[in-house]
User: Fold this.
Amino acid sequence: MASKKTPEINGGSMADISFLMLIFFLMVSTMDPETGLSRRLPQMPPENAKLEDLKVNRRNMLDVKINSRNGVMAGGEVILSDAQLEEIVIEFLTNPSDRSDLPSKVMKNIEGFGEYPVSEGVISLQNDRQSLYSKYIEVQNILVRAINKVRDDFAIAHFGEVYNDLPAEKQDIVREAIPNRISEAEPLDVTKQ
Amino acid sequence: MAKFIRKGDKGTPGINTASLPDIVFMILMFFMVSTSMRQTDRMVNVKLPEASEVTKIERKDLASYIFIGTPSLQYQKEFGTDSRIQLNDSFRTVKDISDFVAAEREALSEVDRELMTISLKIDEETRMGIVTEVKQELRRCSALKIMYAARKTAPAVY
Assistant:
């Protein structure tokens, strides 16, 4: 009985220790979703630049306005439902029957794809100071959704898959063919006009 | 026949808790991976709006946050209930944004400065007036990459 085996370490308190750590991490961490709508603001024009330079041809512009009572208007029409706005935006972006009051298209050589008539349309979103932010995001969301739909249609027609499933270089082609042109316009008080 | 007679009642055996630490560690790991550390104390109430077409922020380390919303209850006595801007740990005005952006930009490496994203965490009840002012100020200090933070929802079906 000379040699005695080393006694085992008691692991009973391990559970308590790890519980403490768990609770610590629960307290100091957040589960904020890091998601949102990405946008690129336009450059601030130089002070002396003329406003006329910025004007786009009338037919290439879709005005979407939100007034102080959160009413929405697009292209001179009062919008009553989300589906209606989406329809207007999709028609504006695709201009399927080449109407003269909808955006013109310019043949553009896209690398790795070839010539494609790219729409020159710009969606200009304007809001009043009193509009609610939630309404603004809702409208932004519909605009993005409409663009995504047009992109999906294009992707299915030419590559046989929806935009999100395409490899990166094909996504670049789709993005070039259907650009995301939502203009964060100069602030205007829509209601006053 | 004594073979089959049991020697007294032993009672229910204790549950083996040897695997309990492993289980708890697993939960711990899950929380460590799926959450991020709280950066600042939130001083304004922000309930993010909902949107279906959201994208994930590309690189979290390049994001700076601007919070806009009504001050939390303990600050309302001092700051009222109007929408306020929170930068880092204090209430600020639109004018302070350029300093804030400059400081945030300075903290990044030269390569990443172009990619800096300003994440706007704005309460859904906020009026657009203050949002527009912030946007104009961001344009002025050419922090052009922004993101309207929003919660993801299932897309509406028309």
